[in-house]
Design a protein that fits this description.
Length: 474
C-alpha cells in the first residue's frame, strides 16, 4: 500500500471514455452528505495536479482518508460526512452508491454550466442596451418564458394568454411613466425575437402572480463606519431559473454605472452602482396589486440609477410607489433603509444600535396589506436566525474592516439550521417542482467609496458545489 495519507478517489467511466481526473466527474455535495456515483479506482494524486485550473470549491473535490491510516480513524469510519469546504467519504460509502455514470456526468456538467453565468457589458441608448441584452441572452430569455409559463399555469391556474392580457395593463403604465425602461424592454424583445408583452410579463411576474409564488431570500446590511456599509443577500428561487442568471453592467449617459445579478430579460434586480447605492430584494406574499403603479423590478432599476438612498426614495415617490408588496433593502455609504413597500402604504426600517438591518420574506412593521397575509414558509425562523448569527459576530467584536464577504458567507449565509427553510435554502424534493426553492446565489456588496465592489457566489454558499467567487466590477 502506498504511503500517502490523503488519497483522491478517481472516478472513471469506461462507457464514456472520460479522463479519470476530469472535473466533470467530481461529486456534488447536498443535504449534509456526499455521494459519488460510478465505478471508481483509487490512485495517489496530488490535489493540485488532479484539478488543473480549478479550485476546490469550484467542483467540490472528494478527499478519501484511508481507514488503514490509524491517525484518521473515527468512530463513524465508513460513513459519508461533510465538513464545510471538503466532502469526505470512505470507499465503502462510495461503493454502496453506484448508479448510472451517464446521469452523474450530465448532472454535474449542468451544475458547472449553471454556476458560471454570462457577463454582459451593456452601453448606449435604452434601445441599444435592450437589443444587446436580448441578442446575447436570447436562449436564456426563451427558457425563462417557458419556466414562468409553467409556473403560472401550475401555481395560479393562469394560461400564458391570460398572463399577456395582464401584462398589457402594466405595459401602458410603463410606457407612460418610465419610457426609457419601456424602450429597453422593447429592445430586449426585438433582440430575443419575442413579443413586447412577453418581456413585460417577465418584468411584472411578481405582480401578475398576485402572491401565488414568491422568491425566498435573506438580506442584511451592516454599517462598517460612518462612510461605508456592507449589503448582502442569499437569493432563493426555483432551480429552473438558475441557468438563466446573468451578471450585467449597464452604462448610460448621465447616470451611475450599474452592476447587478439579474434574470435574463429583467431590467433591474440585485446589485449596486458607482455612486455606492446598492439594492437587495425580499419578495412579500401579500395582496393587493395595483397595475397603475411600478412593478418591483422596475423600482429596483430606478434605485440602481440613483445617486443616493434619498434620491432613490424621491424617484419611487414621484412615480406613485410600487404595484405589489415587497421589501427593498437599500444602502449607500452613509445610509441604509429597509423599505417595506406596499401599494397601500410604505414603512421604512432603520439600523439597530449595532448598525444592522435584517429581513426575510414577511413584513416586520408594515401593516398596509389586505389581511390575512400569507407569509412565505420559514420566513420568521430565518429572520430570527440571521439576527442571532449577526449578534454573535457583534459579540465577537467584529466591526469595520473585519466585516468581509468571506466572513458573511461562512458565518451567516451558509447556515443550514432549520433546513430546508434555512438561510442557505435547501430544495425540498417533497414539494412540487414549480415551488421548490433553493439558494441560487449569494452576493456581498462593499459600499465603501475607497473599495467599492461586490463578490458573488452562484449556488449554495458553503456547500462545496457553489461557483468560484465572481467579482463585480469584473
Amino acid at each position: 500500500m502506498r504511503e500517502a495519507k490523503n488519497r483522491m478517489v478517481q472516478v472513471q467511466y469506461d462507457a464514456m471514455q472520460c479522463s479519470a481526473d476530469s472535473c466533470l466527474l467530481r461529486t456534488l455535495c447536498f443535504s449534509g452528505y456526499t455521494k459519488y456515483i460510478g465505478r471508481y479506482q483509487r490512485e495517489d494524486a496530488q490535489l493540485a495536479k488532479s484539478l488543473p485550473g480549478a479550485s476546490v470549491k469550484q467542483i467540490s473535490y472528494l478527499l478519501w482518508r484511508s481507514p488503514q491510516d490509524s491517525e484518521h480513524r473515527r468512530e463513524d469510519e465508513g460513513k459519508p460526512r461533510l465538513d464545510k469546504a471538503t466532502a469526505v467519504v470512505s470507499p465503502i460509502a462510495l461503493h454502496q452508491s453506484l448508479k448510472d455514470p451517464l446521469q452523474l456526468c450530465e448532472t454535474t456538467a449542468m451544475k458547472l454550466e449553471h454556476n458560471n453565468p454570462p457577463k454582459l457589458a451593456l452601453k448606449g441608448t435604452p434601445r441599444e442596451i435592450g437589443l444587446e441584452h436580448g441578442r446575447v441572452l436570447r436562449e436564456q430569455i426563451h427558457r425563462q418564458l417557458e419556466v414562468y409559463e409553467e409556473m403560472f399555469e401550475v401555481t395560479a391556474n393562469m394560461s400564458w394568454e391570460k398572463v399577456r392580457t395582464l401584462a398589457e395593463e402594466f405595459r401602458a403604465s410603463l410606457e407612460q411613466k418610465t419610457p426609457d425602461l419601456y424602450a429597453e424592454m422593447q429592445g430586449i424583445a426585438e433582440g430575443a425575437g419575442r413579443d413586447i408583452l412577453d418581456v413585460v410579463a417577465l418584468n411584472c411576474r411578481s405582480e401578475i402572480s398576485f402572491g401565488s409564488f414568491s422568491d425566498g431570500c435573506t438580506s442584511l446590511s451592516w454599517k462598517k463606519n460612518a462612510g461605508a456599509r456592507v449589503l448582502a443577500q442569499n437569493w432563493d428561487w426555483t432551480n429552473m431559473v438558475k441557468a438563466n442568471l446573468a451578471l450585467v453592467s449597464i452604462e448610460q449617459a448621465g447616470k451611475p454605472k450599474i452592476y447587478m445579478v439579474t434574470e435574463a430579460g429583467i431590467v433591474g434586480k440585485i446589485g449596486f452602482n458607482t455612486a455606492g447605492v446598492g439594492t437587495c430584494l425580499n419578495a412579500i406574499k401579500a395582496h393587493p396589486c395595483i397595475s397603475a403603479k411600478m412593478p418591483i423590478h422596475v423600482a429596483l432599476r430606478l434605485c440602481l440609477e440613483s445617486s443616493s438612498v434619498a434620491d432613490a426614495l424621491q424617484r419611487l415617490a414621484s412615480l406613485g410607489g410600487v404595484a405589489s408588496s415587497q421589501h427593498i433593502l437599500i444602502s449607500d455609504p452613509k445610509t441604509s433603509l429597509g423599505l417595506e413597500l406596499s401599494p397601500l402604504g410604505d414603512v421604512h426600517l432603520t439600523e439597530d444600535p449595532n448598525g444592522i438591518i435584517t429581513h426575510t420574506n414577511h413584513f416586520i412593521e408594515n401593516r398596509f396589506v389586505e389581511v390575512p397575509p400569507s407569509w412565505a414558509p420559514g420566513s420568521d425562523k430565518r429572520l430570527d436566525r440571521v439576527r442571532e448569527l449577526a449578534h454573535d459576530l457583534v459579540e465577537l467584536g467584529i466591526r469595520d474592516e473585519a466585516i468581509t464577504a468571506p466572513l458573511l458567507r461562512d458565518g451567516i449565509f451558509s447556515d443550514l439550521k432549520n433546513a430546508p427553510q434555512s438561510i442557505c435554502c435547501q430544495e425540498d424534493p417533497s414539494r412540487p417542482r414549480t415551488v421548490r426553492t433553493a439558494t441560487l446565489f449569494n452576493i456581498v456588496m462593499n459600499l465603501d467609496p475607497q473599495n467599492l465592489g461586490a463578490e458573488v457566489v452562484v449556488g449554495q454558499p458553503g456547500s462545496g458545489t457553489e461557483s468560484a467567487v465572481l467579482k463585480m466590477p469584473w
